[in-house]
């Protein structure tokens, strides 16, 4: 029979093991009530600090949004703080930037974009601090009108700059000064200011607000008017069953129609046969969200009949049939389905 033999444990080693085991025993129970109270205090302190930070940033954003010049100055200072402050030869590098790319902040197109940026940042901060989209709606709607006008203005600027550049390069006007580089820089900085999401931009970084302006159902890009409508305005109008929602679709249809007026005949035809009917169909479907089912069915049917060759015709027919003959509602949970009648017809 196999016998196992164990080496004897020295008394000193055994005592060490006992001491180690005793040292690893759990500590006395903490005062849970006192600990929970301290945790609540830390949470409240952090909430108050965040609120104060946001309030200070809101005041700065509103001050910058007061005028195009103030907005431009605030943007330049934010770039200085986030890109040049503390680096070697800070003053020389910043002056070089001001003379090159930074010179665009003196142009009215860029200053207008900077003012819009700070207006949208202020609205975003207000919403993140608890002000509802409904309460902000008048300011948001006005903002979209001004932002749309800014987009039209920069598109006109770009078209005019292109014509001037072509003229400067023509043989008949070889001595004309070419400002193409300055104009290109203006467009680039304009779009840099207004067509990027707020997180990561120089003013937000300078205010240390990157992690504090995250809000649900919101548009973070100041120049994205369609995004502001889709993510903020339209959901609120639908929730209120507000018929002003059709003003958006009418405006969108008109704007897109205006954009193709000077385009080749092929693009105009494509808009009239495909894009415009699709917009009208989306407009018609808004009636269902407003609780006007009959009007929605009639509007959808009208668009269908007027566009029998549309690529999306089959999908539209399916959508309309689903509205005309909606699937039966499921019985409440736990309710047995009604038994089929076996009685003979009378």
Give a verbal description of the structure.
This protein folds into two domains: 50-218, no CATH class; 241-324, no CATH class. Helices cover 67% and strands 0% of the residues. It has helices spanning 11-23, 32-64, 68-84, 90-99, 108-128, 133-169, 180-194, 202-206, 225-239, 245-259, 265-289, 293-306, 313-324. It is mainly α.
Task: Give the helix/strand layout.
Elements: H1 11-23, H2 32-64, H3 68-84, H4 90-99, H5 108-128, H6 133-169, H7 180-194, H8 202-206, H9 225-239, H10 245-259, H11 265-289, H12 293-306, H13 313-324
Provide a short characterization of the protein structure.
Helix content is 67%, strand content 0%. It is mostly helical and 346 residues long.
Radius of gyration: 33 Å
Number of helices: 13
Task: Count the domains.
Answer: 2
Helix amount, in percent? 55-70%
Q: Determine the strand fraction and express it as a percent band.
A: under 5%
What structural category do the secondary elements indicate? mainly alpha
Q: Judging from the principal axes of the Cα atoms, what is the shape?
A: flat
Give a short account of the largest sheet: none
What distance separates the N and C termini?
A: 95 Å
Describe this protein with a few key phrases.
346 residues, 0% strand, disordered C terminus
């Amino acid at each position: 029979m196999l016998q196992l033999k164990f080496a004897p444990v020295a008394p000193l080693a055994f005592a060490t093991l006992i001491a180690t085991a005793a040292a690893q025993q759990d500590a006395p129970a903490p005062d849970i009530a006192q600990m929970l109270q301290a945790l609540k205090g830390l949470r409240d302190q952090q909430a108050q600090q965040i609120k104060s930070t946001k309030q200070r940033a809101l005041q700065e954003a509103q001050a910058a949004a007061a005028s195009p010049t103030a907005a431009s100055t605030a943007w330049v200072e934010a770039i200085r703080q986030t890109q040049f402050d503390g680096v070697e030869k800070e003053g020389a590098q910043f002056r070089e930037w001001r003379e090159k790319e930074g010179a665009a902040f003196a142009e009215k197109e860029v200053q207008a974009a900077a003012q819009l940026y700070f207006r949208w940042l202020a609205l975003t901060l207000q919403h993140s601090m608890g002000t509802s989209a409904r309460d902000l709606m008048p300011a948001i709607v006005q903002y979209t009108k001004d932002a749309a006008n800014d987009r039209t203005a920069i598109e006109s600027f770009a078209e005019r700059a292109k014509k001037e550049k072509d003229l400067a390069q023509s043989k008949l006007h070889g001595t004309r000064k070419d400002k193409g580089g300055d104009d290109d820089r203006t467009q680039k900085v304009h779009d840099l200011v207004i067509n990027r999401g707020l997180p990561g931009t120089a003013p937000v970084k300078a205010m240390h607000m990157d992690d504090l302006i995250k809000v649900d159902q919101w548009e973070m890009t100041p120049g994205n008017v369609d995004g502001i409508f889709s993510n903020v305005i339209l959901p609120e109008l639908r929730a209120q069953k507000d018929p002003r929602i059709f003003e958006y679709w009418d405006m969108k249809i008109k704007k897109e129609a205006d954009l193709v007026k000077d385009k080749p005949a092929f693009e105009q035809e494509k808009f009239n046969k495909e894009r415009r009917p699709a917009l009208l169909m989306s407009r018609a479907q808004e009636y269902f969200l407003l609780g006007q089912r009959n009007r929605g069915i009639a509007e959808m049917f009208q668009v269908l009949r007027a566009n029998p060759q549309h690529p999306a015709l089959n999908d539209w027919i399916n959508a309309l049939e689903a509205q005309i003959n909606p699937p039966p509602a499921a019985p409440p949970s736990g309710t047995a389905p009604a038994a089929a009648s076996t009685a003979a017809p009378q």
